[in-house]
Amino acid sequence: MNKIKKVWMENKILLVLAIILVICLAIFIGVSVTYFYGSSSDKYGTRLDATKNVPLKDELFNDIKTELTKSESVAKVETNLKGNIVYININFVSGTDVEAAKKVADVVPTLFNDDELAVYDLQFTIKSEGDNNFTLMGARNSNGSGLIVWNNNKVQEG
């Protein structure tokens, strides 16, 4: 016991600083874990709460495929929903013009109702291979202008 008292008396300041350091480190670790990992088990957090009130039906995806394949220039359509983003991949037959492909894709937002358009983003990828080869991406943000915005990369035709 005398040894402990002797160490305490000789190193009082260092021991107090060490205790303060350990307490600060514990607080820092606790705050870091809470901030970076949070308490939510959902990988999207609360961002998708609005999608619970406005769910998309499988019929909508079937309508998208049906409407797009009415065009003779469309070879294949794939749709996918991840979170609040609807991914629409459209493959066109050889020889399809870029502007004609954009016009075909412009039909898709009209298939959604206003509530769905206010919650879900649309992401388009349109491709054509063969004589008029191109790949173009476009998006319609639920908070944006309401138009599909296409990337402005120069389309390489080849």
Number of strands: 5
Tally of helical segments: 6
Strand content: 15-25%
- Total of domains: 2
What portion of residues is helical?
A: 40-55%
SSE run: HHHHEEHHEEE
Q: Which architecture of the largest domain would the CATH scheme give at its second level?
A: 2-Layer Sandwich
Overall structural class, as computed from helix and strand content, comes to alpha+beta
Overall body shape? elongated
Rg estimate, integer Å: 28 Å
Mean pLDDT: 87
Please report the distance between the alpha carbons of the first and last residues: 88 Å
Output the strand order for the largest sheet. Answer: 1-2-3-4-5
Q: What's the CATH class of the largest domain, please?
A: Alpha Beta
Structure summary:
This protein is α+β, with helices and mostly antiparallel strands. Helix content is 42%, strand content 22%.
How are the SSEs ordered, and which strands pair?
Blueprint: H1 2-10, H2 12-37, H3 49-53, H4 58-69, E1 74-82, E2 85-92, H5 98-105, H6 114-119, E3 121-128, E4 134-140, E5 149-150
What would you say this structure looks like, in words?
By secondary structure, this protein is of the alpha+beta class. The chain has 2 domains: 2-37; 49-150, GMP Synthetase, Chain A, domain 3. The chain has 6 helices and 5 strands; from the N terminus they run H-H-H-H-E-E-H-H-E-E-E. A 5-stranded mixed β-sheet has the order 1-2-3-4-5. Strand 3 (121-128) and strand 4 form a beta hairpin. The radius of gyration is 28 Å and the shape is elongated. The mean pLDDT is 87.
